[in-house]
Structure formats: structure tokens, C-alpha cells
Amino acid sequence: LAKTTQPISMDSYEGQEVNITCSHNNIATNDYITWYQQFPSQGPRFIIQGYKTKVTNEVASLFIPADRKSSTLSLPRVSLSDTAVYYCLVGDNSYQLIWGAGTKLIIKP
Amino acid sequence: DTAVSQTPKYLVTQMGNDKSIKCEQNLGHDTMYWYKQDSKKFLKIMFSYNNKELIINETVPNRFSPKSPDKAHLNLHINSLELGDSAVYFCASSQGGTGYGYTFGSGTRLTVV
Fold this sequence. Notes:
The structure holds 2 protein chains of 2 kinds.
Chain A: E1 9-13, E2 18-23, E3 32-38, E4 45-50, E5 53-56, E6 61-64, E7 70-75, E8 84-91, E9 103-108
Parallel strand pairs in A: 1-9
Antiparallel strand pairs in A: 2-7, 3-4, 3-8, 5-6, 6-7, 8-9
Chain B: E1 4-7, E2 10-13, E3 19-25, E4 31-37, E5 43-50, E6 53-57, E7 64-70, E8 73-78, E9 87-94, E10 103-104, E11 108-112
Parallel strand pairs in B: 2-11
Antiparallel strand pairs in B: 1-3, 3-8, 4-5, 4-9, 5-6, 7-8, 9-10, 9-11
């Protein structure tokens, strides 16, 4: 099971684009990269998942370089409600993922 | 129409008591999980059931016993509660493994006094 490294915390301001990078040097061929968002007193919520290149949905974009040893979650034009903890996970289609400490993102007015 | 629902949301109990937490999912997923999130916010898997069969059983005290009566339900019973059991317990579900994403419940905050 591949482990990930993320910044412990980040600050930004409303309306800015926020990029959170995750390092996963030991990613395996079958592994996907998945990001979750967790608000206080709630369970984590799936944001986006990708395997390579770029994935975009209505919430975020995920950029994955060719070597797949890192990935970047991009949140466009953040608002105060994007303040949360963001987790990067790497794993294949098994039943177990390793959760790190995540990145605590604080958005300021 | 909640996808993964847990009850109760809060549970305060004394050391030595036995308590249960219930979880139900209406997503039609075939796999359910119990996670523990401690005060440092690390999420650690405890158990996983696939179609009512136990497939993950991490190093958890045997005071914790999961039960899955059907693939839509996964309950957690805890005997002889200890102070260190205080945490938030999350139920989650997925279809065909985690590669397709978990759906989590809103959590049960257990406080042992």
C-alpha cells in the first residue's frame, strides 16, 4: 500500500485558486489517486479520482504528471466553505487504503 | 434518503459498559467498513465486510465485534468500554473495492467517561 505525503496546512483567500500537492513516490502500476474532503463533524467526501494526466469535474481538477509520483488537487475560486481537511490516497481496487494526516486548508475572507 | 446512516450520532457512556453503533447504506454497495478517527484526525480502518463476509480485520481489541446481518447493514458492538475507545467512528461503503471511492456516514462520536 503506497503512502502519501501532503502539507500539514495551507491558507488562502476567497476567490483564489488553491493547489494542494501530494507526493506518492511508491505508487504502483495498478494504483489510482483519490482525493477526499472532510468538514468538521462529518465523514470524508469523495472529490475526484484519477490515474494519469488530468481529470476535471464540477468541483476540482486533478493533475498527474507522467511519472505519477505526485499529484495536484486544484480548487478553482475557493470560498469560505472550502475550509476543510483534504486527504490524498493511493491504492488499487482493493478494500483498504492508508489515510494520512491530510492537509488542513483554511480560506480567509 | 441518506446514503450511509449511522446511529447514534453521539454516545456518552461510562467505562465498563457495552454499547452498539448501527450503520445502514441504501446505495446497493457490496462492501462496508468501520473506521476510527482519533483526536489527531488519523483515520484507521478497523473492519470491512464484503457481501456479509469479513475481509479486513485489523489489529483491534476483541472487545470490538462487527456484525453484518445483510450487505446493507454493518453494526459495531463494543464490550467493556475503556477511556481509550473515545473517538469518532465512521461507517463507510463502497462497490467492488475502494478504487471507486468510499461513501462515509456522518460519524458517531463516542465519549467514554
